[in-house]
Amino acid sequence: MYTPNAGAKGTDTITYQVKDKNGNVSNEATVTIAINEPPVAGDDYGKTKQGVPTTIDVLANDKDPDGELDKSTLHIEKNGSKGTATFDVDGKLIYTPKPGATGQDTITYTVKDKDGSISNTATITIDIVPTQTTPTEVYEKGLRTDGTAGDKSSVTVNGVIELSNPTDKPTTPSDIKIIEPTTKLTSGGEPIKWEPSDNGFVGKTPDGKEVISVKVTDTPTADGNTKVNYEVNLKGLVDHPEGKDSLNIEFGVNNGTDEVKTEIVVHDDKPSAADVELSVEPPADNTFYANLIISLDLSSSMGRDDSGIQGGNTHSGMKTRYDAALDSIESVLNSYEERLNSADAGEVRVSMNGFAKQASAIGAIKGYPMDQPYWCSIADARKIVEGLRGYQELRPDHQVIGVDTNYDAALQQIISIFQKPSSSGMEPLDAKNISGKLDNTLFVITDGIPNFGNQEGSQDPLVGNGIAPTSPNGFIPGSPNSDIGEDSWKAFLTEKGIRSVAIGIGQDMLNSSNGKTGEEFIKPIAFDGQKGKDNDGSDVIVLKDMSSLSNILEKYVPSENTIESSFSKNSQDEKTLSFGADGMKSISIEVDGNTYKYDPKTNSITSDGKDKSIWADFGGGEVAIKTEAGGLLSISLGEKNFGQLTYRPGTTRPIGMEKETFTLTLTDNDGTNGKSSISVDISKLKESGHTGLNDADLTALKLFSPESAMELSGGDHDVNATSSHSTGFMHSSLDALQETQNAII
C-alpha cells in the first residue's frame, strides 16, 4: 500500500528485491506511481437583488491539474443563512434569497475529479442588494375640510418600482401584476376589502366607500429594467393602532421575471394645538369699587331639602335650597371682601333683596319696609344673611310677599333701589364719584318657573308668565304694579352698567309651562349691561345641585388681573387647534396633577382627582378649577364657547411659585394624542404663604342635567310642618295660603 506524503504530486518511484525460498536474491525492480492531484476549487462571488434568485457558474474557476472535474460530484458543505443554494445538472449553483433578506450570505462546497479526489472547500459569497424602492407617503391631514390641511399633506402621490427585464421585453401597465396587500385594514372600525380595478386595486368598506387605491400608470422599459410608475390615492380615513402615528401597507408588483415589494405609509392626522403663554399684569392703579346686588327667590319651594349639600337639620339630612343659597351668598361676600382687601383703594356696597309673588328690599331690622331700598357694607350684608337664617327674623313676611314666583316683581324692585333713597344713608356707588372702574353685578337666584306677573291679565297666553319681549303699554319703571319687558330691562341694565346673572336651581327648572322650560324663562333676566350684549352662554346657569353655587358666584367676582384668552384661536382669530380628519374623541386638561376630561358623547366632564371640592362642571364642556396657586381657571372644552379660557389669579402667589402650567391633551377617534400647554406667568403678584383657596366654601360640585335629575315633584306650593320636605323654612301659619295658591309649578 502506498500513501503519498502530504502535498506530494507528480510521480514517485519505489525499488524493491525479492528472495526465493532458497535465499536467492532477485534483481532490483522499480515501481513508478503517478500521484493524482486533487481538484482546486476557487472562491466565487455573486450579487442579486432582494427576493430575486441568481445563478453562479462555480466551476468556471475550478480546475483539476491532472485530469477532469466530475460536475456530478458538486456538494454543498454548508448552505446559506439568508437563502438556499442548489446545483443544477449543468453544475451551476442556483441561489434563492429568503423573502425580505438583504445583506451578505455565504455557501461552501466541494467537487471531485474523475479519479475521485476531492477538492478543497471553496466559499461562495453573495451580496443581496435591497430593492431600491422608496415608500410612498400619504397624509390623512390632507383630508381635513376645515382649511388647516396645509400644502404638505398630500393624499395623492406617485411612486416608482424598478423591475428586472433582461430582454427589454415591451411592457404595458396591464402586463404588471399588482400583488394586493396582506395588511389588515379598517376604516371607522369597518374592514377594508381589496378589489381589482383598472391596472391596480382599490380598498373599500362594506358599504362600498373607497378608502385607498393603487394603480399602475406607466411602464417604460430600457437597459434591462422596467420602471413601474404607480399612483396612490387616499380617499378616506384608515384606522391606526393606538399610539401609532403611521401605518405601513405592503404591496408588490410582478412582471413575470422579477417581483419587488414596497410600502404605502399612511400618516395619521395627529391632533395639534399651539401652546398658550399668558402673563398676569397687575394694574398700576389697583382699585376695587363695586355694587353687589342680590335678588333671592323666597317662594315656598325654596324650603325643599334637596340642595345636594349634606349637613342640614332636615328629613333628608340635606340643606334646603334656601340655606344653600344663603351659604353661597355669604361665600361671594367673602370673595368680594378678599378682592377689596387686596386693592390699594376701593369700596363695595351691597343691596339684599328677595321676591316671591311680590318683591322686597331686605334691611337690617325686622319688618323692614319692602319698598324702601337698603344699601350697606359687606360686613352689614353678612349680618343680614345671618338674620335670614335660623328664626329668619329679617326675612320678609310671607303673608305680605306670598309664596309664588313673580319675575316681574323681582326686576321692577331692582330698578326701584336705584330710584329711591336708601334708609341706611348709603347709596349705590356712582362711577362719577370714584377714581377708578366701577363694577355693578346682579345675581338673581330662583328655583321655580314664574306663575304670576305684576299686572293681572297682562301676560301673553301663548308665552305664559315671565318676562315678555316688550313692556306693556303704560309701563312704569320700578313700579310693583307694572310688568316689565325684556326691552326695558336691558335698557335699565345698560344705563346703569349692570351685569345681570340669572341662576336657576333645583328640579323645578326641569318643568315647563306652555312649552318653555325654567332655563328659557330665566334667559331674559341675564344681560351684560356693562358690555351691552346678551351673555346667555355664560350668564344663564341652571343647576340641579346647589353645591356648586358658591363657586359659580365666585367666578363673577371682578378682578383687574383676570385674563381672557383662547387655546383654539390666536389673536387674529385664526385656528390654532385641530383634531384632524379623524375628529374629536375627547379633550382633557391637567391641572396640578389632576386630569379633567370632556367626553362629547356624554357632554360632561370627569376628573381622576379625589378632591371634588375644587372644580365645577358648568355644562357643555365648561369647567372651573381652583389651582394650588390660588387661581381660578375657567375653560371650555366642549362645543359651548369651545376654546375660551379665563384665568383669575389669587390676590397673591405662593412663595417661590412664578408660573402655573396646565397641559391640554387632544385625542382623536383613532386614539392618537396631541398635547399643548397653557402657562400663566404670575411672578408679578406679591408673594404670600396663603394660596387663596377657600376650601370651606367648596363641596362636591354637580352639574344639572335632565338625565341625572332627582325624582322630586316640582312646585311653589305651601308646605306644612309635618311634610317630608318640611324644614322649618315654612311655618304652619302659611297653611291659610294654600286655598289661594294658584298654579302649582
UniProtKB/TrEMBL annotation:
Coiled coil: none
Domain VWFA: residue ranges: 291-556
Region: Disordered, residue numbers: 187-206
InterPro entries: VWF_A, vWFA_dom_sf
Pfam families to which the protein is assigned, alphabetical: Big_9
Record's protein name: von Willebrand factor type A domain protein
Organism: Providencia alcalifaciens DSM 30120
